[in-house]
Amino acid sequence: MPAANEVVLSATRVTRALGILPVHIDITFNSIAVSYHGGESDLPFTLIRVVRAPVPDHSKLQQLQALVAEIESGLDLDEARIRFHVIRRMPFRYRPAVIVLAQGLLAVGVCLLYGASWTTTLMALLAACSAALTQRAMARLHVPFFFSQATGALVVTAWAAATNVLRANGVALFQDASPGIIVAAGIVLMLAGMSVVAAAQDAIDGFALTAGGRILDLALLTLGVVIGIVGGVSLAQRLGMGFPLSSDPPALGPVAMQVAGVVLIAVTVAVWNGATARTILVSALLGSVAWAGYSAAVAGDIGVPMASAIGALIASFVGTLIAHRLHVPSIAVTTAAIVPMVPGSVVYRGLLRIVEAQDEAVPLILGFSDLFQAGAIGLALASGATLGLVLGAPVRDTLQSVVRRRGRIR
């Protein structure tokens, strides 16, 4: 979902184009209030709308941005109302089966990123699709998303445990399978839909209530994933299906597989958010550019959190510059581009250390250290993406003014 400041700016552009001034616009997490007071002798008018969209819809967002531009160009108010209601009533761009498949392919992209075997990739696909179907069924029952996150994570862990049992029992096809990568892919899937960038941007822009609501929402949903993973791993251990623990993070695959994985992740996240074909292509390109910056920073030995911030900064800065030109939402392409850098494997390793620590202090400390590192990476992604928006907006405006000036000269 777009940041609160973008919503305020869009609404202000519409009211200014229609000559409705002065207007005060207030965003409070899931509600929008617009107040108008024409003069001292006029009664003030306030309109409040509650936003209940369960998932982002970047296709509608793109069309609404185009409608705002047309209103500024002089579109008639009655025609604008008709166009708005048409956009509002549009169904989601993709069918549920396509979204579930996209979520499964997101896990496949994570497996490609780590150069996993085909059996690991297949099990990750099945685990992600099962988790997605479970969450959709719980959504139809109106179960709070916190429990849905926990259940989805538990389903993914169950698939990983089954894979580990098959490998431990000597099934030939599963000898090179990696349950850890399956869980890591599931964690990325569970965290991919969160609006980390928008929450950080709201905090920086001064929308404290909205930022606080989003941050609390992020914390609760992340806690749901943690509870599901920890519960699943603990249950697997009690049933004699414990997971192998490695002190080293999983190695990335060959460069070609990394690029394929990054592109697949960016494309699936864009489809999941209902993006158009143009937005999907831009997301894939931007994801590759961001990953190149991230990889170069990691090779420079500056630490994963800082490298993640640099990758997110590049994605956000470039996305801000090209999004307006290509008529795609910048938040859509930026969100899709940074998902490959979500620290799924670090979260898994930290949780597994904590579960297996028992009464030992050192593994427990190492587990919390991994979780703190994952938190640092998440903050770095949000900060880098927000800084990219801050730096990119004035550059974009300057380039647009130069282009308009040249057009007048000609």
Average pLDDT confidence is 84
According to DSSP, the number of beta strands is 3
Structural class: mainly alpha
Radius of gyration: 23 Å
- By DSSP (H or I, 4+ residues per run), the number of helices equals 15
Could you characterize what this model shows?
It is a single chain. The protein is 72% helix and 4% strand. The chain is mainly alpha-helical and 410 residues long. The chain has a three-stranded antiparallel beta sheet. Strand 2 and strand 3 form a beta hairpin. Helix 6 (145-168) packs antiparallel against helix 7 (179-192) and helix 12 packs parallel to helix 15. The longest helix is centred in the C-terminal third of the chain and has 49 residues, at 361-409. The mean pLDDT is 84.
Summarize the structure.
The chain has 410 residues and is mainly α.
Layout of SSEs?
Layout: H1 4-17, E1 23-28, E2 31-36, E3 45-50, H2 58-72, H3 77-88, H4 96-113, H5 118-140, H6 145-168, H7 179-192, H8 196-205, H9 208-238, H10 255-272, H11 277-299, H12 304-326, H13 330-338, H14 344-357, H15 361-409
Helix pairs in contact: 1-2, 2-3, 4-5, 4-7, 4-10, 5-6, 5-7, 6-7, 6-9, 7-9, 7-14, 8-9, 8-15, 9-14, 10-11, 10-13, 11-12, 11-13, 12-13, 12-15, 14-15
